[in-house]
Amino acid sequence: MNNSKLILLVEPDPKEVLLFECAMKRLRVRNPVRVMQKTRELRDYLEGEGPYKNRELFPMPRVILLDLDLPGLEAANFLHWLRKKFDYTDILVIGVSNFEVSRRVRAFFELGINAFFQKRVNLDDTLKCLREIELLDEVLDREPERVLEQEAWMGNAAQG
Q1: Cα–Cα distance between 104 and 16 in angstroms, integer?
Q2: What is the CA 122 to chain-centroid distance, rounded?
Q3: Is residue 20 within 8 Å of residue 126, measured between CB atoms?
Q4: The domain at 7-159 falls in which architecture?
Q5: Whole-model pTM?
Q6: pLDDT tens per residue, range 96-119
Q7: 93-116: buried (b, 16+ CB within 10 Å) or exposed (e) per residue?
């Protein structure tokens, strides 16, 4: 069983990374997030190669958010590799793309993604998409509501 709470985001666009990080913050998600730009780096991480040898510092992820729009067949090739190399039933693989649900997305489900969401251009739409992925709810570590309420109360008391 994978007890890690780590989310690996494979996304080369810094704007998309920022949007995702803002959405996770608004959702009060405490899971650590590591961002990678290419699937080669992700492969090294999963295999514990190079700088990723120490599993205490670099645990196996619980979630991989994979940009399906990576150049060429990079995402498809990675999913083929992942299926052959690992028993990744404990890793939730979520495909993220600019395109809508289509034959192309169905092909990625056949390659092993567990869920899909379409990239959005604003924070509110991104939040809505992330909330709709029920599988994601099972692995997110969220900050309790009362902690947020206490922080808000303390902030108001300090201002008053």
Answers
A1: 21
A2: 17
A3: yes
A4: 3-Layer(aba) Sandwich (3.40)
A5: 0.78
A6: 888 766 678 888 988 888 888 887
A7: bbbbbeeeeeeebeebeebebbbb
